[in-house]
Amino acid sequence: MTCDEQTFTMKPGEFQALGTGQIAYVKPMTSDDLTTLFPQAPRMRPGLNLWVLLNADGTPIMLSDSRETALANAAEHQLHTVALH
């Protein structure tokens, strides 16, 4: 660390809130895990491959059977999508 660098501390949740409403990510999931993000979702055929668009803080925005549709929805709402590794 040099003299020019500064250290700062963030409160719990502050880091998670960075990018909320501006950044989103698309995540694959199966219908088996659907109720973890969408508790009110109707029952679906088990093993169905789905894509979920999530806000930067992990809040689900939309569900689709197509990655392209999820990405298009993000673009339509001016959300920048990022890749998670």
What does this protein look like?
This protein is α+β, with helices and mostly antiparallel strands and 85 residues long. It has helices spanning 14-17, 34-37, 67-76; strands at 23-30, 49-55, 60-64, 80-81. The protein has a four-stranded mixed β-sheet with strand order 3-2-1-4, with helices on one face. A hairpin with a 4-residue loop joins strand 2 (49-55) and strand 3. The longest helix is centred in the C-terminal third of the chain and has 10 residues, at 67-76.
Shape: elongated
Strand content: 25-35%
Q: In percent, how helical is the residue content?
A: 10-25%
Average pLDDT over all residues = 85
**Spans of at least 5 consecutive residues with low confidence:** none
Radius of gyration: 16 Å
User: How many beta strands in the DSSP annotation?
Assistant: 4
Structural class given helices, strands, pairing?
A: alpha+beta
| Total of helices | 3
N/C terminus separation = 27 Å
Largest sheet: 4 strands, mixed
Question: Major sheet: order of its strands?
Answer: 3-2-1-4
Order of helices and strands: HEHEEHE
Summed up:
With about 80 residues, the protein is α+β, with helices and mostly antiparallel strands. The chain is built from three helices and four strands.
Relevant terms:
alpha+beta; 85 residues; four-stranded mixed beta sheet; 21% helix; 3 helices; 26% strand
Task: Note the topology.
Blueprint: H1 14-17, E1 23-30, H2 34-37, E2 49-55, E3 60-64, H3 67-76, E4 80-81
Parallel strand pairs: 1-4
Antiparallel strand pairs: 1-2, 2-3
